[in-house]
Amino acid sequence: MLILLAFIIVFHITSAALLFISTIDNAWWVGDNFSTDVWSMCATNTTTCTTITDQFKEYQSIQAVQATMILSTIFCCVAFLVFILQLFRLKQGERFVLTSIIQLLSCLCVMIAASIYTDRHEELHKSIEYSVNVSQGQYGYSFVLAWIAFAFTLISGVMYLILRKRK
């Protein structure tokens, strides 16, 4: 049981780390001389970064991605704290339902963010406010990590739903 508990904790911390990296790091959309995320666009040859503001054409879509990624990260961290509390508070044989619900909310938020970005990426990168042409690029590792975090949070959310507290 101790090994299972350690695995669950490591799995949850990994999920949170993936969410933090994908939310913060500047690699959702990358090209030869630029990298962009949901916060800014950086030109690699001049080391200048342009913050994405309401001057950009698809700013509402970017704000939705920003908000849901932040919510997802918060929900994942809160779920971990709730799990630790429930570990000491639940009676033997009860399920970690509250932790599961919060973790599945995290899963839903990261799925929404990655889906919006997937759907709107062409319009997002056609804005003339960028200092370089960012339309010719591909998805970066932060975007991929967001989808991996979706799978991890889904698995851990279901795992918490099935899991019962034992001695």
SSE arrangement:
Elements: H1 2-24, E1 29-30, E2 34-36, E3 40-43, E4 48-51, H2 59-89, H3 97-124, E5 138-139, H4 141-162
Antiparallel strand pairs: 1-2, 1-5, 2-3, 3-4
Helix pairs in contact: 1-2, 1-4, 2-3, 3-4
The strand count comes to 5
Assign a percent range to the helix content. Answer: 55-70%
The tally of helices reads: 4
How far is the first residue's CA from the last residue's CA? 8 Å
Order of helices and strands: HEEEEHHEH
Quaternary organisation of the protein chains:
single chain
Radius of gyration: 18 Å
Average predicted confidence as pLDDT: 87
Uncertain spans, ≥5 residues at pLDDT below 50? none
For the sheet with most strands, the description reads: 5 strands, antiparallel
Structural class: alpha+beta
State the strand order across the main sheet. 4-3-2-1-5
Q: How much of the residues is beta strand, in percent?
A: 5-15%
Shape descriptor reads elongated
